[in-house]
Design brief:
Arc Repressor Mutant, subunit A; 2 domains
Length: 230
Amino acid sequence: MYNILVTDDEEMIRRLIIKYAEFEGHKVTEASNGMEAVMLCRSNNFDIVIMDIMMPELDGFSACREIRKISDVPIIMLSARGEEYDKINGFELGIDDYVVKPFSPKELMLRIDAVLKRARGNSGISQQPKPNEVFEFEGLKADITARIVYIDGKRVDMSPKEYDLFFYLLKNRNIALSREKLITEVWGYDFYGDDRTLDTHIKLLRKSLGKYAKMIVTLRGVGYRFDCEK
């Protein structure tokens, strides 16, 4: 059973999600605006948050930004718009998935399962200490074990999924990786999004890497390769 927070200013949308979530045995709390959602997150431990973007008092992006200050709870963002800008903005804030309205409630439940399965799988990684795995190339340094990246000595902040994607590319450097392989390994075999999510994160990652963005090579019709050969 999941403890879910559903945030949307449209009562009909909230009722629809609650109906399907409760049918599957989950506990649901609802909020009608971003301000209310932030306050609820401060006083409750939710397993996942479903957040609409366009809401009164505090929009979804602003609410997500405030929630991220106090919690790493997985967030799925809802939007009536599917513009790339909105997706990039959301992923930069650290959301876990993005669903465009109108959506299938059954698919949303599957996405919730997939996001939480990945989140709980990552939290279950062994905590046994081991030597840090570090990659260095010119002014680029990545401590894979500590999940820290430096460019010319300055630490670079990335979203959790950017780190996952970057470190997977690093560990498989100089190898051609298909889009399907990247989505399966980074997002999980049960990912219910589309491959545009991969493209969006590649764009974000290149932006974070600055002058080293060119090391992520696009392989037309195949996927990507992290090229670090001098």
